[in-house]
């Protein structure tokens, strides 16, 4: 039976697993990334992890999920991986292990995992959205990632959902990420409530009945619903799966989103696209990365 390694290269945690072609996880490892040490030290740890995972196994390939930007197997300065300037990670690992190596951004990896093994495993067309510090997405059709002509399919964070709004570096004014992400909610909390600790505090105050906090959350939900409505009317997937820290910590948002979305789509599309919570948790990144190798039947 074929087996593959999946690596989730994050700014905080470095995770790895071995899965077989049925999607069963056979081994798992997890350790702090300690990204501030720079790429050489992290890559050395990554190689040790792969050595441990391959021990006693016949491995057909290695998949890696990483924060972007990425291009042609090269990692280009992700904000949470300091010093990773044009690091050719695919080439480095191929030379070390003499195996095919695949590199993809973390949102696409999560989309692939949830489409093949998670909440979308019985659906043909799956759109995945992560709402965390930022907002990202990925589209999977018939268990294949749809990347687009320039590998930008699913990059919904820069979708314009308002003609006004704050301007974040690298994003359009009025972008979805600048208005509905955890970072956006936290910034409005500072501006309007003078509170720290980001979106978590704003949600806590909203749940306690603070009217300003409730309005901040309602505004973010409204903008997110506009973005999802745009996806429904352009991609028309069978299901939309939501993950990321903000959604996972506030699952009640889904019912509010469903109501809001219906006001932005054609009447015959209302209630047509179910929203679901991501189900794979911390295993999303590793399993999705392993699936990049094409192991899954």
From TrEMBL:
Keyword Signal: no
Pfam families: ROK
Key words of the record: Kinase, Transferase
UniProt-listed InterPro entries: ATPase_NBD, ROK
Molecular function as annotated in GO: kinase activity
Record flagged with keyword Transferase: yes
PANTHER family assigned to the protein according to its UniProt record, in alphabetical order: BIFUNCTIONAL UDP-N-ACETYLGLUCOSAMINE 2-EPIMERASE_N-ACETYLMANNOSAMINE KINASE, ROK (REPRESSOR, ORF, KINASE) FAMILY
Family recorded in the similarity comment: Belongs to the ROK (NagC/XylR) family.
Protein name: Glucokinase
Source species: Seinonella peptonophila
């Amino acid at each position: 039976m074929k087996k593959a390694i999946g690596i989730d290269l994050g700014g905080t945690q470095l995770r790895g697993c071995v899965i077989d072609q049925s999607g069963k996880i056979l081994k798992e490892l997890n350790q702090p990334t300690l990204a501030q040490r720079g790429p050489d030290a992290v890559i050395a740890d990554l190689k040790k992890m792969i050595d441990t995972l391959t021990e006693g196994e016949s491995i057909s390939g290695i998949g890696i999920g990483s924060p972007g930007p990425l291009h042609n197997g090269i990692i280009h300065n992700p904000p949470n991986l300091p010093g990773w300037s044009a690091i050719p990670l695919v080439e480095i690992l191929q030379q070390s292990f003499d195996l095919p190596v695949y590199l993809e951004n973390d949102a696409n990896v999560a989309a692939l995992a949830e489409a093949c093994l998670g909440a979308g495993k019985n659906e043909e067309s799956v759109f995945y959205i992560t709402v965390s510090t930022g907002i990202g997405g990925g589209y999977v059709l018939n268990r294949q990632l749809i990347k687009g002509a320039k590998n930008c399919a699913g990059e919904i964070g820069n979708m314009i959902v308002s003609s006004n709004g704050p301007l974040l570096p690298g994003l359009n004014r009025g972008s979805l990420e600048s208005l509905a992400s955890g970072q956006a909610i936290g910034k409005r909390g500072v501006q309007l409530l003078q509170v720290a600790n980001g979106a978590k505090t704003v949600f806590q105050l909203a749940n306690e009945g603070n009217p300003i906090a409730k309005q901040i959350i309602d505004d973010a939900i409204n903008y997110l619903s506009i973005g999802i409505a745009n996806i429904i009317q352009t991609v028309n997937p069978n299901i939309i799966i939501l993950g990321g820290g903000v959604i996972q910590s506030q699952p009640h948002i889904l019912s509010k989103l469903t109501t809001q979305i219906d006001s932005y789509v054609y009447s015959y599309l209302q209630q047509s696209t179910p929203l679901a919570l991501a189900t794979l948790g911390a295993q999303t990144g590793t399993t999705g990365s392993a699936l990049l190798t094409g192991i899954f039947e």
